[in-house]
Amino acid sequence: MPAHLDVIASMTMTTNHKESPTVTDRPHPSKLLLLTLLIAAGLAGCAVEPRALTPDERQTNLLAGRSAMVAQQEPVQGAITLEEAMARAIKYNLDHRLKLMEEAVAQRTLDLSRTDLLPKLVMSAGYSGRDNELASSSRDVSTGLQSLVPSTSTDRERVTGDLSLSWNVLDFGVGYYSARQQADRVLVAQERKRKVVHLLMQQTRQAYWQAAGAQLLEGKIEPVLALARQALDDSRKVEVEKLRSPLDALNYQRQLLDIVRQLEAARDDLAQAKPRLASIMNLEPGQSYKVAVEPALNAPRISLPVAKIEEAALLNRPELVEAQYNERIGVLETRRALARLLPGLELSLGGHYDSNSYLVHRKWSDAGLRVSWNLLNVFSADSIRGLAQTQLDVAKQQRLALNMAVLTQVHVSQLEYLGRLKQYELTQQLNTVEQRILHYTRNAASASAQGKLEEVRAATSAMMSELRLYQSYGALQGAYGQVIATIGLDPLPESVPAYDLKTLGAAVRASEQSWTKTVNPGGGA
Q: Which of 366, 370, 421, 479 has its CA 20 to 30 A from that of 333?
């Protein structure tokens, strides 16, 4: 045995420690607990397998989803007016609800980003235990012999606690610009919500008047269909009895069948109008309701000069306001990138506790100041600055492109409105003529089969003309709503006292009166 090992062995045997490390020492309970936890975690991880949804679970989710789509809605009472339809769309439409939730998420993210500006206050506590003493000895570097007996200055079991406060000035600067960017993103979410509401009001307006036309015509189409089918049955009897030539009878039936085809196609088209409006208002599918129809279908008028419409659109459109916010976010991104290049200054203050009985002071406080700087940022400064500037330039170009797109939409929507207005006026005149023809045809109709054909044909033409009238009016209202959306006029004022349907309907009515004064300052027809 080497000499220095003999010395160490003799010194160890002469110490007052009665414990000697042997292979028969029992493991510490903490080790057994840790080993048990590791085995349990491993078995649990191996036991994870894909689990498909059962049919009962899918059925439960389906029922819960259907009830959630129309939950907590005010029931329909009486005929639905245009203002109530718009109010229901604003309050219950699922797309609008989604944008409201996105705005709420952006606001919550802003609240969280504000906390990044605060100092970091960290509290920690811990427990540690050993199955033997944390002992150590020293060795003389000259002789290579042990110079001190093994000793310890740490308890086998101890509890520690720390409470530290730190604040990094660089992180504060970066977090400040990030919080300002998130504040602008909240405003971006609000503008996107405005855009959805504008499109929603345009769709509601057009669908409402189409549903109104369908409601007015749903009681007129069946009598004409019954008359055409009766005439068709009579013609077939005439053909069987050979009271007319086969060719004349077949031509007569062909005309009647063509009329029946047109009437049934019109009936099918009308049947889809109310479900479309119900979907926009988020009514339960299949629910029966009535719409309030005004006796006179007055055409909405726009007399505002195109130059004024362009100016209002450039000022109010949500897309352009969003683009300006994005440009501002780009400027802040440039500043945030430059702030990352600066040195970091960190201030710290803390209080500590350690239950170690060997310590002279178990409680103590400390404070520190630290400066750090990533020198490699100096080499990438131009690239970082260039990237941020490029993002800003892209945002500016997007805004300019949107300006051109908005101006184009202004002129297209104006031309669409004027075209729809002319079509509606011509359809009005044509419907008047068709109704007068039907009146004279019924007065002059005889009991002959040919006279019945003329009556059916006149009734069908009159009804189809009336259908085209309501369709044309709905298209005109849609074009009018498109101009309103192109200008960027909001369907609700900035603040609404309550969010019930009655209050929302009154707010929509007040906003529409304001629209009328804006787009038709003279108030002329």
A: 370
